[in-house]
Design brief:
The chain is α+β, with helices and mostly antiparallel strands and 116 residues long. The protein has 4 helices and 4 strands, in the order H-E-E-H-H-H-E-E. Helix 3 packs across helix 4.
Length: 116
């Protein structure tokens, strides 16, 4: 099993920021976490709101913690609101089941992190 490197995490952020510029979205933050939910890289664009870092980490933590994209998490949360409502408390607030995060897999399909 491979590990997510800092260079890979930074490359993911570079590509994501390029896509955000192309889409002309408001300034944002992107967090890349490893498979244990630790931040490997976190960047916030100029003029991004103060909550962007926390939201990015929460989305990525939810995806890596559950092993699925945040879009799928949101769908599951709608069907099980009590369970998903408790998860932020269990994770000290680092769980946001909202669209905007993907899991990162190595070439063998093993989850090595997430980006939000």
């Amino acid at each position: 099993m491979s590990k997510l490197t800092l260079a890979q995490a930074n490359k993911i952020i570079d590509v994501a920021f390029a896509k955000a510029r192309e889409m002309k979205v408001k300034p944002l933050a992107i967090a890349v976490l490893d498979d244990a939910g630790h931040v490997r890289s976190l960047q916030r664009q100029d003029n991004a709101s103060m909550l962007r870092n926390d939201v990015a980490i929460g989305k990525a933590a939810a995806a890596v913690g559950m092993g699925i994209s945040s879009r799928t998490l949101l769908e599951r949360a709608q069907g099980n609101p009590i369970f998903f409502g408790a998860l932020p408390a269990v994770t000290q607030g680092k769980f946001i089941p909202q669209t905007g995060a993907v899991v990162i897999k190595d070439k063998d399909g093993t989850i090595i992190g997430a980006a939000g």
